[in-house]
Please model this.
Amino acid sequence: MSDAILALVPVYGLPLLAAVAGLSCLGLPLPASLVMMLMGSFAAAGDFGLVPVFVTAFAAAVGGDQIGYFVGRFAGQAVTTRIARKPAGKAALDRATQEIARHATIGIFLTRWLFSPLGPYMNLVTGATGFSWAHFTAAGVAGEAVWVILHVGLGILFSDNVLAIAEIVGDASGFLAAGIVALFLGWRLVTVLGRGKSGRT
Model:
């Protein structure tokens, strides 16, 4: 599918960039970073204006984040309300909400660009737990600006080798995201085992 999308980039340009960037922020497996790099490469060659490329990718990414957040806010509320009916579920939900309130801002910022595969899930979770929309938007806008500048800029700088650079960047982002998930799961496992031991003593 990626090859087919890439073949359409010179033909559909900015509309395709907007669609791919926005939908990737909703969790669809689309090569948004690669499309941005290609558009940066085309902009360097004079085929597209640099400012329209930046603005289109940035606006689409922020829009996709907003949709994901509000899907979490409205659909997730029904799930969290059901969980909160039981005392144990409410206590767990309260703890999760407190953790998100403390750490979500930096998490939102980093999952826009450094750990981008986790971004769509962060959008849903922050919306579902009622995290501040203003703080979500501020962190998301800052992170998406970094994401777009980084990838379009790489396309401009390495326009002759953009496909090779895109593959390296994509692999690195995936490995980082997988590492973060593994570390989190390991930390949760150690925490649960520690509680189990303290409960038996």
In short: The helical segments are 2-24, 32-44, 50-83, 87-113, 119-128, 133-157, 162-200. The first helix runs from residue 2 to 24. The mean pLDDT is 82.
